[in-house]
Amino acid sequence: MLAAHTFAQPATSVPRLRHPARRMTRRNTYAVRVRGDGMRDCNLFNGDVIIIRRFQHGAHETATAEINRRPVALKRLTINRNGLQLIFDHTDWPAVFLHNRDIEVLSLVMGIEHHATEH
Questions:
Q1: Measured distance CA(116)–CA(119) in Å, rounded
Q2: In the sheet where 21-34 sits, what is the strand order?
Q3: H-helix or E-strand containing 98?
Q4: For the chain, which residues make up each domain, given as ranges?
Q5: pLDDT tens for residues 58-69?
Q6: Contact at 8 Å (CB) between 34 and 46?
Q7: Cβ neighbours of residue 58 under 8 Å, at least 6 residues apart?
Q8: Dihedral sign from CA coordinates of 36, 89, 54, 51
Q9: In terms of CB atoms within 10 Å, which of 20, 23, 26, 86 comes out highest?
Q10: Which residues contact 63 (CB under 8 A, 6 or more apart)?
Q11: What DSSP line would sit under 23-79, residue for residue?
Q12: Which Pfam families does the record cross-reference, listed alphabetically (predicted)?
C-alpha cells in the first residue's frame, strides 16, 4: 500500500524582477510621384512629388506632407492596400485619395526606435 504524501510549498518571498517596458517611436517616410492626369481635380499633376512623414510615439501620432516642397499639415493619414488617403488640417481642403494606379512609390523608409522605461 502506498501512502499519500503532500508536500508544502516553502513560504518564501521571491522578489519580483523589474522588467523595463519597451516603448517605441516609429518614424516612417514615404515618397510618391503622381502618375498621369487623374488627380487634376485635386491640383495634383503628372510628376508632382509628395513626401509624407509619419511620427508615432505610443498612442500619439502625427503626420505631415510636402507637395512639391510645400509643407502641408495633415489631420490624418490612412494607408491601405488600395492607396493613400490624406486628410488635411486645413478644413477648406478636401480629403485626397491617391489610388495605387495614380502614384508611383519612389521610396519608403521605416524606422523604429526603442526606449526602455521602468515601471
A1: 10
A2: 96-99, 83-88, 70-80, 60-67, 49-57, 21-34, 103-117
A3: strand 96-99
A4: 23-117
A5: 778 889 999 999
A6: yes
A7: 23
A8: positive
A9: 86
A10: 52, 53, 54, 55, 74, 76, 77
A11: EEEEEEEEEEEE-SSTTGGGT--TT-EEEEEEEEETTEEEEEEEETTEEEEEEEEEE
A12: Peptidase_S24
For residue 93, which amino acid is it? W
Cα(15)–Cα(98) distance, integer angstroms = 55
Query: What one-letter code names the amino acid at 16?
Result: R
3: cell is: 501512502
Per-residue pLDDT tens over the stretch 7-62: 444 555 555 555 455 577 888 899 999 999 888 888 889 999 999 999 888 778 88
How far is it, in rounded angstroms, from Cα 76 to Cα 62?
Answer: 8
Between strands 96-99 and 21-34, the pairing is unpaired
